[in-house]
Amino acid sequence: QAQLVESGGGDVQPGRSLRLSCVASGFIFSRNGMHWVRQAPGKGLEWVAMIWYDGSKKYYADSAKGRFTISRDNSKNTMFLQMNSLRVEDTAVYYCARDDCSRTSCLGHWGQGTLVTVSS
Amino acid sequence: QSVLTQPPSVSAAPGQKVTISCSGSSSNIGNNYVSWYQQLPGTAPKLLIYEDNKRPSAIPDRFSGSKSGASATLGITGLQTGDEADYYCGAWDSSLSAYVFGTGTKVSVL
Predict the structure, then answer these.
(1) How many CA atoms lie within 13 A of A59 on its CB side?
(2) What confidence tens digit (pLDDT) does each residue in A11-60 have?
(3) Which of the residues A105, A109, A112, A114 would you substitute to probe the B interface, choosing the one with the greatest number of B C-beta atoms within 10 Å?
């Protein structure tokens, strides 16, 4: 049974940094691409970033480019999202999700999310 | 950056059918597969449909997906109170090199 567990969320002041983690279990982590998706309070889903199964390619939403870095450690079944220069508008629940489609992206398994609140 | 457009809400009585549209462009829906996600209140999203019209094994056949050109549609038949949720379409956008979600549709069972 595939499981994804996010951690690292919390309250942080604007301009500070935070690193989120997503620990995977129940499947061979190194075989799947992985995503970060966020959802601001009362808003829709916003895709943040994606990393290939081997970490060789990374993609970012415009809102994340230059501030966020996605990475993974396949030896530890863990994905990360380093978030720098945080803004109030980055306040959201951050989900990690496993990419389950080989021909295109589809987010087949999701974690329960971790809340990031950016406020002074 | 919601480049996929959905109606804000749809509703129907129990047992009836609803359809949700998702309008995009040639850089996303028109040339890439579409997925659909269900988000029940207070929970993480769940994959309902992938590759335009395929269902994961645990998803009942009351849920269906279709696509024509740069638009996709999710259908829900035999509507149940447990189907009340937000529904999102999603697709890879080749021009943006990014995954994009739709604006989301709230389904209400009258």
Answers:
(1) 18
(2) 999 999 999 999 999 999 999 999 999 999 999 999 999 999 999 999 99
(3) A105
